[in-house]
Design goal:
With 327 residues, the protein is mainly beta. It is built from 1 helix and 26 strands. The chain has one helix at 54-67; strands at residues 30-33, 82-87, 106-111, 124-125, 135-136, 144-146, 148-151, 154-157, 164-172, 175-177, 180-183, 194-203, 206-208, 211-215, 223-227, 237-239, 242-244, 248-252, 262-264, 267-269, 275-281, 287-289, 292-300, 307-308, 310-313, 321-324. The radius of gyration is 22 Å and the shape is globular.
Length: 327
């Protein structure tokens, strides 16, 4: 039986005193999601009472965060970090529904297999029969996402013109790691726009160890990362990814602010071929370092001194390798 000490006024620690043991989960909550054993309307606070869809957990997380530790009298702490854990239950024929409102200051963790291919056991987000992007923030207040960390998710869009696996307007200070973004084999042969698309600002984000713009069928996204916006692309780190785009790998708006951002150690190309247009179209001030690129125009709009040690396959066949630097 555990022991409990209640302190109502003050607890003093004298020099040399230590505190040991696990601190617990902190102020935030953990929500559990399982679309096989979970139930719509459940609390989500344990696997026994798991919710059925991520959208339910996101709604609960936002409600709890806005209350500040869940206390209706305390509305000042909006920065509690909750965690949503999603059980891997299948493959593309057993997906979780699309997410149209992303949580703020929250971790979304896929508890499943490495999210590539068509195998069972992955956490698959996005129903290929529903005409929508698999993850978006279109229902967020002001279309803004802050501090939303995504891990180990297979994000698969409806196959249709203009859709993307993940489409955001404004995204700040978030981490995207060990995820797959593309279109589904079951959705048909129409290529989607992009693996990841942003239309407003994408700043202060980490994108690492992802496969972006991949296909599970005959068609692949036109663009790996579509970053065409007039806002800021500053202070991002995009590293160690595999980025596919039949037309362009990473497409930024030339002249937009990408100062402090680094694109490094990525493999960028088309599917079984080079990108037909560009490998990277760069914003202003981004450093492009040690990438392997196969494209008709490997690096476009980058200034002298912003390209270091990139390896280019000039002809798209693997026949010509050159270190790429351009003034």
């Amino acid at each position: 039986m555990g022991q409990q000490v209640n302190v109502y006024r003050e607890l003093k620690f004298y020099p040399g005193a230590t505190v040991s043991g696990a601190p617990g989960q902190g102020l935030g909550r953990t929500y559990y999601v399982n679309n096989v054993t979970g139930t719509s309307g459940a609390s989500g606070l344990s696997w026994r009472h798991a919710m059925a869809e991520p959208s339910e957990a996101i709604t609960a997380s936002e409600t709890y965060r806005a209350l500040g530790q869940g206390q209706s009298a305390d509305t000042t702490n909006d920065y509690i970090r909750n965690t949503i854990i999603i059980q891997g239950t299948g493959r593309y024929d057993n997906p979780y529904a699309a997410i149209q409102a992303m949580p703020l200051h929250c971790n979304i963790i896929g508890l499943g297999d490495w999210p590539c291919g068509l195998g069972e056991g992955m956490v698959v987000i996005g129903d290929w029969e529903s005409a929508d992007d698999a993850i978006s923030n279109e229902d967020n207040t002001g279309d803004i996402t802050r501090g939303c960390n995504l891990y180990n998710l297979h994000v698969s869009s409806y196959a249709g013109t203009g859709y993307s696996a993940m489409k955001v307007v404004y995204m700040y200070r978030s981490r995207i790691e060990d995820c797959w973004f593309g279109q589904n084999v079951a959705g048909g042969a129409v290529p989607i726009n992009a693996g990841i698309e942003c239309t407003g600002s994408f700043s202060g984000n980490l994108v690492r160890h992802c496969i972006i713009g991949q296909r599970n069928g005959s068609s692949a996204p036109n663009i790996g990362m579509d970053m065409v916006f007039s806002g800021s692309g500053a202070n991002n780190l995009i590293e160690d990814n595999i980025i596919f785009g039949t037309v362009t790998g990473i497409l930024c708006t030339a002249g937009t602010n990408w100062e402090g951002s680094v694109i490094r150690n990525n493999t960028i190309g088309g599917i079984l071929a080079q990108c037909t247009s560009y490998g990277i179209v760069a914003g202003t001030g981004v450093l492009i370092v040690n990438n392997y690129i196969t494209a008709a125009d490997p690096i476009n709009s980058a200034a002298a001194g912003e390209m270091i040690g990139n390896i280019i396959v000039d002809d798209g066949t693997g026949g010509t390798l050159t270190e790429y630097a351009r003034s």
